[in-house]
Design goal:
- It is a single chain.
- The protein is an alpha+beta fold.
- Helix content is about 55%, strand content about 25%.
- It has five helices and seven strands; from the N terminus they run βαααββββαββα.
- A four-stranded antiparallel sheet has the order 1-2-3-4, with helices on one face. A three-stranded antiparallel sheet has the order 5-6-7.
- Strand 2 and strand 3 form a beta hairpin.
- Helix 1 packs antiparallel against helix 3.
Length: about 190
């Protein structure tokens, strides 16, 4: 924990938290894409099955029977008709893959959001990303870059990259990322005058 590294009398100005919107987007965006993919593959198959069933109903109407047997279809259509079991198996496999890939992707993305920490105090900035820690005074910070996706701009989260004399480190999916750049400019504005 970075809070353990704070000196006595050091006040926390801003503390990063993982954006809940980023995690929600990870759990919703891919399922929507996969669902569209599933529907684009399976709807034509289901449509052809529906039209085949309608053809069977028309044949039953022509023959004047309520139900058409397999032998009736063979005799009148010249081909054997049945809903192929491989289509049903295919749809089941597609649904299983859809659900498994969504769960796997969402769990991995959620896991990658954790392990990041960012604390801005009145004297310095502390970052931790996947076990790598960077501590720097405000004077040593060269710049703070903000990276946001379209979703990040809509829901106010993004990646914060701090460049300082000791290196650079990125903290991902931070709520209100521009707050840290404002603190940087506030703390270093006297250097630019």
């Amino acid at each position: 924990m970075l809070k353990d590294k704070l000196d006595e009398g050091e006040d926390i100005v801003a503390e990063a938290s993982i954006s809940k919107a980023a995690i929600i987007m990870d759990w919703l965006v891919l399922p929507c894409v996969l669902l569209l993919l599933f529907l684009s593959v399976c709807l034509p198959v289901l449509g052809s099955i529906y039209s085949s069933v309608k053809k069977v109903e028309m044949i039953a109407e022509i023959l004047g029977v309520e139900e058409v047997t397999f032998s009736d279809l063979v005799a009148h259509m010249g081909i054997a008709f049945q809903i192929p079991k491989f289509l049903i198996i295919f749809i089941d496999i597609m649904l299983g893959l859809l659900i498994a890939s969504w769960l796997g992707w969402a769990c991995v993305k959620t896991y990658t959001h954790f392990g990041y920490e960012l604390i801005a105090t009145d004297k310095r900035i502390l970052l931790q990303a996947k076990g790598v820690t960077l501590e720097s005074t405000w004077d040593e910070v060269k710049n703070i870059f903000i990276g946001q996706s379209i979703w990040g701009k809509l829901f106010n989260y993004g990646n914060v990259t701090v460049h300082c004399s000791r290196g650079a480190l990125t903290v991902k999916s931070v709520t209100d990322p521009y707050r840290y750049r404002q603190e940087f400019y506030k703390r270093t504005s006297d250097q630019f005058v």
